[in-house]
Specification:
binds zinc ion; about 250 residues; alpha/beta; Collagenase (Catalytic Domain); two-stranded parallel sheet
């Protein structure tokens, strides 16, 4: 009788303990919205965690440009910080959406906590599974705080004599994907005037804007050879300002 009681108590204890452990170890950024990035009300600082496959590190200029871009648009009184670490090659010839989600799960260390918001960027050593001979993806924003850059493709299409520099192409794709995380276009940050390119998802209809759909693929290469990094146009900036940004 006493033994039975002890066993029952042990079972209850284990179940309770097990549940508690599960709950405390459930990193989840699903509740984050673009306004959390743009406004300083809830989150005062942004930490961007970069996990790059060895040999596929972004240039320091790109990291600086990204911080400048974010600092210009986000209300983060405690600043925008960056952490970087290398990860081993996943040894894949291309990446699917679920591959990328899995890699983030394996390697991401920082999640939103207190007044610190976090985002994670993977720099990968192969392309996207939906690439074609003509059009290859340079990056994608696949979660509320999650970006993947197909850095092998970026490096194949930049740095050559007839190509944009690494810095220009990397910065263009990183800033473009952050634009999606910030809710552009009509993707969590509402439009003040209609400027969505309806044939191409959550993109801007202005072909010189950072959020034009071609900025995401190798289709943009020829337009970047001049050396200028595309910027947000006035419509996109107005949307961000109306959702807590600056
Ligand atoms: Zn895009
Ligand atoms: Zn725009």
């Amino acid at each position: 009788m006493n033994y039975l009681r002890i066993i029952i108590l042990l079972v209850i204890f284990n179940v309770t303990f097990g549940c508690k452990k599960d709950n405390s170890f459930k990193p989840n950024s699903g509740y984050i919205e673009p306004i959390d990035f743009l406004s300083g009300k809830k989150y005062k600082m942004l930490v961007v965690e970069i996990s790059y496959v060895q040999g596929y590190m972004p240039t320091q200029e790109t990291v600086n440009n990204m911080v400048t871009f974010l600092s210009a648009r986000l209300n983060k009184p405690k600043g925008v910080k960056v952490t970087m670490k290398s990860i081993p090659s996943p040894r894949k010839s291309s990446f699917s959406h679920s591959d990328v989600v899995y890699l983030e799960k394996m390697h991401r260390k920082h999640f939103p906590l207190g007044d610190i918001l976090t985002a994670h960027i993977l720099f990968l050593d192969a392309g996207y599974i939906q690439d074609t001979d003509n059009t290859k993806y340079l990056g994608m924003a696949y979660g509320k705080t999650s970006i993947a850059i197909f850095q092998k493709t970026v490096s194949d299409y930049s740095g050559g004599i007839t190509q944009p520099t690494n810095e220009v192409l990397e910065t263009t794709i990183v800033n473009h994907e952050f634009g999606h995380v910030l809710g552009l276009v009509n993707n969590g940050t509402s439009m003040q005037t209609n400027h969505q390119d309806n044939d191409h998802g959550h993109h801007c209809d202005n072909d010189t804007c950072l959020m034009y759909y071609k900025m995401e693929t190798t289709d943009i290469i020829d337009n970047l050879v001049g050396g200028n990094i595309p910027e947000l146009d006035q419509n996109c900036i107005t949307d961000l300002r109306n959702n807590g940004g600056k």
